[in-house]
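Milestone M4 deliverable, item 7.
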Amino acid sequence: MAKEEDLSYKEAILKASASISRYPLIPIKGVPLMSYIANNWDSISAFCPDPSDLLIATYPKAGTTWTQEIVDLLIHNGDAEACKRAPTPVRSPFLEICAPPPIPSGLELLKNMDPPRMIKTHLPFHLVPSGFWENKCKTIYVARNAKDNLVSYYYFDCMNLTQPEPGPWEGYIQKFMRGELSWGSWYDHVKGYWEEREKKNILYLFYEDMKENPRREVERIMRYLDLSVSDEVISRIVELTTFKKMKENPMTNYSCVPPPVFDQSISPFMRKGEVGDWRNHFTPEQSKIFDEDYKKQMKDVNIPFRTLI
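Output delivered:
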């Protein structure tokens, strides 16, 4: 079954690859989104989830795939084979993603799935379809420190041939600070979910905490989902979701997306997965400018980010 779904997903992307390009960004309520998403915005915003659906929300490159795999393994009691039934984007559809036919949109994949569904989004809080909050859907949000998130997003934009051309590193830092990337401002994104986390019962996780003590964070996710698995299963899930294991797993490493879309010869989808890699990229001057801007943009909140662990 997994092989059939994997093949059909790959085939759909390959068939559409000739018409795939780096799509321009179009603002929706002040947030730049790829044109394919913006042009389908009415359908996306009208999506109404089942109350049993789970939303996994992140700014791009903040630990989304990692969290999706942890949740799927928890739901399946640590059964690795069950979680190889299909690649991540088929098991956990990307709500707002749209592409040329015959690539299925996130909405099309969701329409063909029975609840409860595990749904991925990069939408900032104010763009999430209101049905998620009206139906009191559980939501897991993962936040990653700005500097590492920026570095990871830069490499992703280099290899993802549907995103706007990233340009040179120096200019990309400026675009990140101004919120001129797909899905908008990192600052607004992390603040939006942080400010609503208690009212909307959002489990707000930090990438750095997950790296520092993955077992503790897997247990937090388990409790939030009202699940109960044995200590042995928790240990297995921690092992199966190490960066090394997931990078080798064809169901999680996005090898299901062929090179005309994700050119992993430029940069692998799963590149390093480290905390503190930003030190290999920021010059002292760039770091100083970034830190000064960060203080201004985050002065109204106290979110306990760590750039090192």
